[in-house]
Amino acid sequence: MASKPSVFIDGEAGTTGLGIRDRLRALPDVALRSLDADRRRDPAARRDMMAQVDLVILCLPDAAARESVALADGLGNAAPKILDASTAHRVHPDWAYGFAEMQPGQAERVATSRKVANPGCYPTGAIGLIRPLVDAGIIAPDHPIAINAVSGYSGGGRSMIEGHERNGGPAFELYALGLEHKHLPETQLYCGLARRPIFVPSVGHFRQGMLVSVPLHLDTLEGSPTGADLRAALAARYRGCECVRVTDPSVDGKLEPEALNETNLLELTVHTNETQRQAVLVARLDNLGKGASGAAVQNLRLMLGLPAVAARLETVDA
Q: Average pLDDT over the chain, rounded to whole?
């Protein structure tokens, strides 16, 4: 019997690393390797571990992720495949972008690449909504786009998590109002936009869950489409996808961000007022699921040639 593919998480003590580790422990067909806590910052120990495994997942700050890639590259033919959860390589032309459903053939590119950049949580929602409409010719690449989003505080890293869980934290706050959020480059590139979108992120006093919304004036779009046209374009792109689904708007016109927590699902809805010729596209996801750890496990399985796991089964036991 062939041995299980082995995986090392470089940076396993962070929020994303812990999430990936929990998901991998629940899977019987992957062998998870780890370093003792006192050796995790030792470059020699990390390099030796990289030489022993099939794939390394980087859950590190950008600079540290680049250093780890250099360590792996130094192994030459013995280098493992790399899946980077940082922002360091998301727009690098030599790295595959790990949003498997983004466009036809993207899952195959992930599966055949030795270096894959895991997407950001906000871009996953925005790209999921916008890219199909750009590809369909409904949104012009130079169309002015505004993206609003709210995330649970777990997306802000250890300091924000501690601030909310220890001190209560604010009920809600906007941030990155200098309009230079680190997710903007990948959002613009993979949405297929020639004009830089305006992105306004926010955080709420809940641990995880996310809503990403894009308001549109229908008469400013190519061909003056209806809301049904937008929904049809999204449905056509994601037909047959296990982890992305296009759903009908709620009857009460409300959406809460936590409904998909502990899953690897991305849910897309189109809300319209045809009288006013306006629409709001909304993506809902778990920022720690399809927005981080869940997407990483999905990409890992593609890269290792393992069968997919149902999106609702990729959960963490309570």
A: 93
